[in-house]
Design brief:
The complex is a heterodimer of chains A (222) and B (175). Chain A is mainly alpha-helical. Chain A contains 10 helices and 2 strands. The mean pLDDT of chain A is 88. By secondary structure, chain B is α+β, with helices and mostly antiparallel strands. Helix content of chain B is 37%, strand content 24%. Classes of the chains: A mainly alpha (222), B alpha+beta (175).
Protein backbone atom coordinates (compact mmCIF):
# COMPACT_ATOMS: atom_id res chain seq x y z
CA UNK A 1 0.00 0.00 0.00
CA UNK A 2 1.48 3.38 -0.97
CA UNK A 3 1.59 6.30 1.44
CA UNK A 4 -1.35 8.15 -0.14
CA UNK A 5 -3.63 5.11 0.11
CA UNK A 6 -2.41 4.52 3.65
CA UNK A 7 -3.45 8.07 4.57
CA UNK A 8 -6.78 8.06 2.72
CA UNK A 9 -8.00 4.67 3.94
CA UNK A 10 -8.59 6.06 7.44
CA UNK A 11 -10.57 8.98 6.09
CA UNK A 12 -12.92 7.09 3.76
CA UNK A 13 -12.57 3.31 3.22
CA UNK A 14 -11.81 2.35 6.81
CA UNK A 15 -13.25 5.37 8.62
CA UNK A 16 -13.06 4.34 12.29
CA UNK A 17 -16.47 5.76 13.18
CA UNK A 18 -18.67 5.34 10.11
CA UNK A 19 -17.18 2.10 8.76
CA UNK A 20 -15.60 0.26 11.72
CA UNK A 21 -18.07 1.74 14.26
CA UNK A 22 -15.27 2.14 16.84
CA UNK A 23 -15.10 4.69 19.67
CA UNK A 24 -18.80 5.52 19.45
CA UNK A 25 -19.48 6.24 23.12
CA UNK A 26 -17.34 9.40 23.58
CA UNK A 27 -18.05 10.43 19.99
CA UNK A 28 -21.77 10.60 20.56
CA UNK A 29 -21.36 12.17 24.01
CA UNK A 30 -19.14 15.11 23.03
CA UNK A 31 -20.75 16.07 19.73
CA UNK A 32 -23.19 18.55 21.24
CA UNK A 33 -21.14 21.38 19.71
CA UNK A 34 -18.54 21.72 16.97
CA UNK A 35 -16.09 23.20 19.51
CA UNK A 36 -16.27 20.03 21.64
CA UNK A 37 -15.78 17.86 18.57
CA UNK A 38 -12.73 19.92 17.53
CA UNK A 39 -11.27 19.55 21.03
CA UNK A 40 -11.84 15.80 21.04
CA UNK A 41 -10.31 15.54 17.57
CA UNK A 42 -7.17 17.39 18.71
CA UNK A 43 -6.80 15.07 21.71
CA UNK A 44 -7.31 11.89 19.68
CA UNK A 45 -4.99 13.17 16.91
CA UNK A 46 -2.16 13.80 19.39
CA UNK A 47 -2.57 10.45 21.15
CA UNK A 48 -3.16 8.32 18.04
CA UNK A 49 -0.22 9.68 16.02
CA UNK A 50 2.25 9.55 18.90
CA UNK A 51 1.12 6.15 20.22
CA UNK A 52 1.42 4.68 16.72
CA UNK A 53 4.92 6.17 16.41
CA UNK A 54 6.16 5.01 19.83
CA UNK A 55 4.68 1.52 19.55
CA UNK A 56 6.04 1.11 16.05
CA UNK A 57 9.50 2.23 17.20
CA UNK A 58 9.42 -0.32 20.02
CA UNK A 59 8.10 -3.17 17.91
CA UNK A 60 10.33 -2.55 14.89
CA UNK A 61 13.41 -3.23 17.02
CA UNK A 62 13.82 -7.03 16.75
CA UNK A 63 15.42 -7.61 20.16
CA UNK A 64 13.12 -5.26 22.01
CA UNK A 65 9.98 -6.59 20.31
CA UNK A 66 10.85 -10.14 21.43
CA UNK A 67 10.99 -8.94 25.03
CA UNK A 68 7.87 -6.79 24.78
CA UNK A 69 5.67 -9.30 22.91
CA UNK A 70 4.46 -11.24 25.98
CA UNK A 71 3.51 -8.00 27.74
CA UNK A 72 2.63 -5.92 24.68
CA UNK A 73 -0.95 -5.02 25.68
CA UNK A 74 0.11 -3.58 29.10
CA UNK A 75 2.92 -1.71 27.28
CA UNK A 76 0.42 -0.22 24.80
CA UNK A 77 -1.85 0.80 27.67
CA UNK A 78 1.03 2.45 29.59
CA UNK A 79 2.10 4.41 26.47
CA UNK A 80 -1.47 5.44 25.57
CA UNK A 81 -2.37 6.35 29.17
CA UNK A 82 0.76 8.51 29.44
CA UNK A 83 -0.09 10.36 26.23
CA UNK A 84 -3.71 10.86 27.32
CA UNK A 85 -2.57 12.21 30.71
CA UNK A 86 -0.29 14.67 28.89
CA UNK A 87 -3.24 15.79 26.74
CA UNK A 88 -5.36 16.17 29.87
CA UNK A 89 -2.71 18.26 31.65
CA UNK A 90 -2.16 20.49 28.61
CA UNK A 91 -5.89 21.05 28.09
CA UNK A 92 -6.39 21.77 31.79
CA UNK A 93 -3.57 24.31 31.71
CA UNK A 94 -4.15 26.06 28.39
CA UNK A 95 -7.74 25.32 27.28
CA UNK A 96 -9.65 25.19 30.56
CA UNK A 97 -13.10 25.90 29.06
CA UNK A 98 -12.71 23.01 26.66
CA UNK A 99 -11.30 20.85 29.47
CA UNK A 100 -14.38 21.54 31.61
CA UNK A 101 -16.68 20.99 28.68
CA UNK A 102 -15.19 17.62 27.63
CA UNK A 103 -14.90 16.48 31.24
CA UNK A 104 -14.52 12.75 31.79
CA UNK A 105 -14.27 12.04 28.07
CA UNK A 106 -10.64 13.23 27.95
CA UNK A 107 -9.30 10.48 30.28
CA UNK A 108 -11.63 8.04 28.53
CA UNK A 109 -9.53 8.43 25.34
CA UNK A 110 -7.33 5.76 26.99
CA UNK A 111 -9.99 3.14 26.36
CA UNK A 112 -10.93 4.39 22.90
CA UNK A 113 -10.89 1.24 20.73
CA UNK A 114 -9.50 3.15 17.73
CA UNK A 115 -6.21 3.88 19.48
CA UNK A 116 -5.56 0.44 20.96
CA UNK A 117 -6.90 -1.13 17.75
CA UNK A 118 -4.44 0.75 15.52
CA UNK A 119 -1.58 0.00 17.92
CA UNK A 120 -2.22 -3.75 17.77
CA UNK A 121 -3.40 -4.06 14.16
CA UNK A 122 -1.07 -1.63 12.39
CA UNK A 123 1.68 0.06 14.41
CA UNK A 124 3.03 -3.18 15.90
CA UNK A 125 3.57 -4.67 12.43
CA UNK A 126 4.64 -1.68 10.33
CA UNK A 127 7.45 0.86 10.02
CA UNK A 128 7.30 4.08 12.10
CA UNK A 129 6.70 6.37 9.07
CA UNK A 130 3.79 4.25 7.83
CA UNK A 131 2.39 4.04 11.35
CA UNK A 132 2.46 7.82 11.70
CA UNK A 133 0.69 8.21 8.34
CA UNK A 134 -1.88 5.61 9.41
CA UNK A 135 -2.40 7.50 12.69
CA UNK A 136 -2.86 10.83 10.87
CA UNK A 137 -5.36 9.27 8.43
CA UNK A 138 -7.36 7.52 11.14
CA UNK A 139 -7.42 10.62 13.36
CA UNK A 140 -8.52 12.80 10.43
CA UNK A 141 -11.24 10.29 9.57
CA UNK A 142 -12.41 10.23 13.18
CA UNK A 143 -12.25 14.03 13.44
CA UNK A 144 -14.22 14.58 10.24
CA UNK A 145 -16.86 12.09 11.39
CA UNK A 146 -17.41 13.68 14.82
CA UNK A 147 -17.35 17.19 13.35
CA UNK A 148 -20.01 16.19 10.81
CA UNK A 149 -22.20 14.74 13.58
CA UNK A 150 -21.67 17.81 15.78
CA UNK A 151 -22.55 20.27 12.98
CA UNK A 152 -25.85 18.43 12.39
CA UNK A 153 -26.64 18.18 16.09
CA UNK A 154 -25.75 21.72 17.07
CA UNK A 155 -27.51 23.29 14.09
CA UNK A 156 -30.71 21.27 14.50
CA UNK A 157 -30.66 21.40 18.31
CA UNK A 158 -29.59 25.00 18.99
CA UNK A 159 -29.63 26.80 15.65
CA UNK A 160 -25.95 27.71 16.05
CA UNK A 161 -22.54 26.33 15.13
CA UNK A 162 -19.86 27.12 17.74
CA UNK A 163 -16.47 27.03 16.03
CA UNK A 164 -14.28 28.09 18.99
CA UNK A 165 -14.99 30.16 22.11
CA UNK A 166 -17.12 33.14 21.12
CA UNK A 167 -16.70 32.49 17.39
CA UNK A 168 -20.18 31.27 16.60
CA UNK A 169 -22.40 31.10 13.53
CA UNK A 170 -25.97 32.01 14.45
CA UNK A 171 -28.22 30.22 11.97
CA UNK A 172 -31.45 30.82 13.87
CA UNK A 173 -32.52 33.00 10.94
CA UNK A 174 -33.31 29.76 9.06
CA UNK A 175 -35.55 28.57 11.88
CA UNK A 176 -37.17 32.02 12.08
CA UNK A 177 -37.82 31.93 8.34
CA UNK A 178 -39.45 28.51 8.66
CA UNK A 179 -41.28 29.75 11.77
CA UNK A 180 -40.16 26.79 13.86
CA UNK A 181 -37.94 26.40 16.95
CA UNK A 182 -34.65 24.44 17.00
CA UNK A 183 -35.29 20.80 17.95
CA UNK A 184 -33.52 20.56 21.34
CA UNK A 185 -33.71 16.76 21.28
CA UNK A 186 -30.75 16.76 18.88
CA UNK A 187 -28.34 17.99 21.56
CA UNK A 188 -29.58 15.28 23.91
CA UNK A 189 -28.43 11.62 23.85
CA UNK A 190 -31.39 10.44 21.75
CA UNK A 191 -30.52 13.05 19.12
CA UNK A 192 -26.95 11.71 18.97
CA UNK A 193 -28.14 8.22 18.06
CA UNK A 194 -30.68 9.59 15.58
CA UNK A 195 -28.08 11.79 13.85
CA UNK A 196 -25.55 8.96 13.77
CA UNK A 197 -28.14 6.57 12.34
CA UNK A 198 -29.22 9.03 9.65
CA UNK A 199 -25.64 9.77 8.56
CA UNK A 200 -24.81 6.07 8.55
CA UNK A 201 -27.93 5.35 6.44
CA UNK A 202 -26.88 8.07 3.98
CA UNK A 203 -23.34 6.67 3.68
CA UNK A 204 -24.66 3.11 3.22
CA UNK A 205 -27.09 4.29 0.53
CA UNK A 206 -24.27 6.04 -1.37
CA UNK A 207 -22.00 2.98 -1.05
CA UNK A 208 -24.77 0.62 -2.23
CA UNK A 209 -25.54 2.91 -5.16
CA UNK A 210 -21.89 2.85 -6.20
CA UNK A 211 -21.74 -0.94 -5.86
CA UNK A 212 -24.88 -1.38 -7.99
CA UNK A 213 -23.51 0.94 -10.68
CA UNK A 214 -20.24 -0.99 -10.74
CA UNK A 215 -22.08 -4.32 -10.93
CA UNK A 216 -24.20 -3.01 -13.83
CA UNK A 217 -21.09 -1.83 -15.71
CA UNK A 218 -19.46 -5.25 -15.23
CA UNK A 219 -22.61 -6.98 -16.51
CA UNK A 220 -22.87 -4.66 -19.52
CA UNK A 221 -19.19 -5.11 -20.40
CA UNK A 222 -19.36 -8.88 -19.84
CA UNK B 1 17.46 -15.09 32.81
CA UNK B 2 13.75 -15.97 33.11
CA UNK B 3 11.96 -14.59 30.01
CA UNK B 4 8.91 -13.51 31.99
CA UNK B 5 11.07 -11.60 34.45
CA UNK B 6 12.88 -9.79 31.61
CA UNK B 7 9.54 -8.83 30.02
CA UNK B 8 8.38 -7.55 33.40
CA UNK B 9 11.54 -5.47 33.74
CA UNK B 10 11.00 -4.03 30.25
CA UNK B 11 7.45 -3.06 31.22
CA UNK B 12 8.75 -1.52 34.44
CA UNK B 13 11.37 0.48 32.51
CA UNK B 14 8.77 1.77 30.04
CA UNK B 15 6.56 2.69 33.00
CA UNK B 16 9.43 4.59 34.63
CA UNK B 17 10.21 6.50 31.41
CA UNK B 18 6.51 7.41 31.12
CA UNK B 19 6.48 8.52 34.78
CA UNK B 20 9.48 10.80 34.23
CA UNK B 21 7.85 12.25 31.11
CA UNK B 22 4.65 12.94 33.05
CA UNK B 23 6.53 14.64 35.87
CA UNK B 24 8.28 16.90 33.33
CA UNK B 25 4.93 17.89 31.76
CA UNK B 26 3.41 18.32 35.22
CA UNK B 27 6.24 20.65 36.28
CA UNK B 28 5.27 23.26 33.70
CA UNK B 29 1.51 22.71 33.58
CA UNK B 30 0.85 22.57 37.36
CA UNK B 31 1.45 26.32 38.05
CA UNK B 32 -0.68 27.24 35.06
CA UNK B 33 -3.47 24.86 36.15
CA UNK B 34 -3.46 26.41 39.64
CA UNK B 35 -3.67 29.87 38.09
CA UNK B 36 -6.63 28.89 35.92
CA UNK B 37 -8.47 27.21 38.82
CA UNK B 38 -7.88 30.22 41.06
CA UNK B 39 -9.22 32.44 38.31
CA UNK B 40 -12.52 30.54 38.34
CA UNK B 41 -12.63 30.49 42.14
CA UNK B 42 -11.92 34.17 42.51
CA UNK B 43 -14.12 35.33 39.62
CA UNK B 44 -16.70 36.65 42.10
CA UNK B 45 -14.03 38.45 44.15
CA UNK B 46 -12.72 40.15 41.04
CA UNK B 47 -15.89 42.25 40.97
CA UNK B 48 -14.79 43.79 44.30
CA UNK B 49 -10.99 44.10 44.04
CA UNK B 50 -8.18 44.01 41.47
CA UNK B 51 -6.86 40.65 42.55
CA UNK B 52 -3.44 41.12 40.96
CA UNK B 53 -2.68 43.68 43.71
CA UNK B 54 -3.33 41.24 46.56
CA UNK B 55 -2.10 38.01 48.11
CA UNK B 56 -5.20 35.95 48.84
CA UNK B 57 -5.59 33.20 51.40
CA UNK B 58 -8.68 31.36 52.58
CA UNK B 59 -10.12 30.47 55.96
CA UNK B 60 -12.82 27.82 56.22
CA UNK B 61 -15.25 29.00 58.89
CA UNK B 62 -18.29 27.14 60.20
CA UNK B 63 -21.88 27.90 61.13
CA UNK B 64 -23.40 30.63 58.99
CA UNK B 65 -20.04 31.31 57.39
CA UNK B 66 -18.36 29.35 54.63
CA UNK B 67 -15.07 30.54 53.11
CA UNK B 68 -13.57 33.81 54.33
CA UNK B 69 -11.10 35.31 51.84
CA UNK B 70 -8.22 37.21 53.41
CA UNK B 71 -6.71 39.89 51.16
CA UNK B 72 -3.33 41.41 51.90
CA UNK B 73 -1.72 43.97 49.64
CA UNK B 74 1.32 42.45 47.93
CA UNK B 75 4.36 42.64 50.20
CA UNK B 76 2.27 43.70 53.23
CA UNK B 77 1.62 41.60 56.33
CA UNK B 78 -1.52 43.44 57.52
CA UNK B 79 -4.98 42.41 56.33
CA UNK B 80 -6.32 44.89 53.76
CA UNK B 81 -9.78 43.42 53.43
CA UNK B 82 -11.91 40.41 54.26
CA UNK B 83 -14.53 38.92 51.99
CA UNK B 84 -17.09 36.81 53.83
CA UNK B 85 -19.23 34.07 52.37
CA UNK B 86 -22.16 34.22 54.74
CA UNK B 87 -25.73 32.92 54.67
CA UNK B 88 -28.96 33.46 56.60
CA UNK B 89 -32.47 32.04 56.38
CA UNK B 90 -34.73 33.87 53.93
CA UNK B 91 -38.38 33.25 53.05
CA UNK B 92 -37.95 30.06 50.99
CA UNK B 93 -34.44 28.98 52.01
CA UNK B 94 -30.95 30.26 52.77
CA UNK B 95 -29.71 33.45 51.15
CA UNK B 96 -25.96 33.38 50.59
CA UNK B 97 -23.95 36.59 50.21
CA UNK B 98 -20.42 37.73 49.59
CA UNK B 99 -19.65 40.78 51.73
CA UNK B 100 -16.34 42.60 51.19
CA UNK B 101 -15.17 44.72 54.12
CA UNK B 102 -12.00 46.86 54.14
CA UNK B 103 -9.75 47.09 57.21
CA UNK B 104 -11.26 50.52 58.06
CA UNK B 105 -14.66 48.73 58.39
CA UNK B 106 -16.02 50.37 55.25
CA UNK B 107 -18.07 48.00 53.09
CA UNK B 108 -16.41 47.77 49.69
CA UNK B 109 -19.28 45.89 48.07
CA UNK B 110 -21.67 42.99 48.51
CA UNK B 111 -23.42 40.51 46.32
CA UNK B 112 -26.15 37.90 46.73
CA UNK B 113 -24.55 34.77 45.25
CA UNK B 114 -27.33 32.24 45.75
CA UNK B 115 -30.90 32.09 47.00
CA UNK B 116 -34.10 30.12 46.52
CA UNK B 117 -36.46 33.05 46.87
CA UNK B 118 -39.53 33.43 44.66
CA UNK B 119 -38.90 34.99 41.29
CA UNK B 120 -40.36 38.52 41.15
CA UNK B 121 -40.52 38.81 44.95
CA UNK B 122 -37.53 37.78 47.05
CA UNK B 123 -35.43 37.44 43.94
CA UNK B 124 -35.46 41.26 43.66
CA UNK B 125 -32.69 41.28 46.26
CA UNK B 126 -30.06 40.38 43.65
CA UNK B 127 -28.25 43.57 42.67
CA UNK B 128 -30.25 45.71 45.10
CA UNK B 129 -28.52 48.55 46.95
CA UNK B 130 -29.22 48.14 50.67
CA UNK B 131 -27.49 51.39 51.58
CA UNK B 132 -24.81 49.84 53.78
CA UNK B 133 -21.48 51.63 53.66
CA UNK B 134 -20.05 50.88 57.16
CA UNK B 135 -20.28 47.38 58.59
CA UNK B 136 -20.62 48.69 62.17
CA UNK B 137 -23.46 51.04 61.27
CA UNK B 138 -26.55 49.34 59.86
CA UNK B 139 -28.95 52.13 60.86
CA UNK B 140 -29.36 53.19 57.25
CA UNK B 141 -30.17 49.66 56.04
CA UNK B 142 -32.67 50.04 53.22
CA UNK B 143 -34.92 46.96 53.02
CA UNK B 144 -36.75 45.93 49.86
CA UNK B 145 -40.41 46.67 50.41
CA UNK B 146 -42.76 43.68 50.28
CA UNK B 147 -40.04 41.12 50.94
CA UNK B 148 -39.48 41.55 54.65
CA UNK B 149 -38.20 38.04 55.41
CA UNK B 150 -35.65 38.13 52.61
CA UNK B 151 -34.55 41.64 53.56
CA UNK B 152 -34.17 40.47 57.14
CA UNK B 153 -31.94 37.64 55.93
CA UNK B 154 -29.71 40.17 54.17
CA UNK B 155 -29.55 42.34 57.29
CA UNK B 156 -28.74 39.23 59.34
CA UNK B 157 -25.80 38.51 57.01
CA UNK B 158 -24.42 42.03 57.61
CA UNK B 159 -24.99 41.63 61.36
CA UNK B 160 -23.15 38.33 61.47
CA UNK B 161 -20.16 39.90 59.73
CA UNK B 162 -20.31 42.95 62.02
CA UNK B 163 -20.16 40.69 65.08
CA UNK B 164 -16.87 39.07 64.12
CA UNK B 165 -15.03 41.57 61.91
CA UNK B 166 -13.03 43.24 64.70
CA UNK B 167 -11.83 39.93 66.07
CA UNK B 168 -10.94 38.71 62.56
CA UNK B 169 -8.99 41.85 61.71
CA UNK B 170 -7.23 41.56 65.04
CA UNK B 171 -5.77 38.16 64.16
CA UNK B 172 -8.72 35.92 64.89
CA UNK B 173 -8.29 34.06 61.62
CA UNK B 174 -5.60 31.42 61.73
CA UNK B 175 -4.86 30.69 58.06
Amino acid sequence: MNKKDNLLKGIIKENPLFVSLLGMCPSLAVTTSLENALGMFLGVFFVLVLSNLIISLIMSNKKLSQLVKPVRIPVYIVVIATLVTIVEMLMHAFLIDLYLSLGVFIPLIVVNCIILGRAEAFASENKPVDSVIDGIGMALGYGMAIMLISIFREFLGKGTITIWGTLQLDLNVIFNFLKIEPISMFVQPAGAFLTFGLILAGITAIANNKKNKLAKEVTNNG
Amino acid sequence: MNKGLVSGLVLLTIGLVCGILLSVVNSFTAPRIKLEEDKIKYQALEEFYTLADYDISEYEANGAFATIYILKEKGQSDISALVYTVSAQGFAGPVQMLIAVNNDLSVEDYKVVSHTETSGYGADIVGNNFGVSEIDDLAGFDAVSGVTKTSNAIKECFNLVAQRINSDLGGGLSE
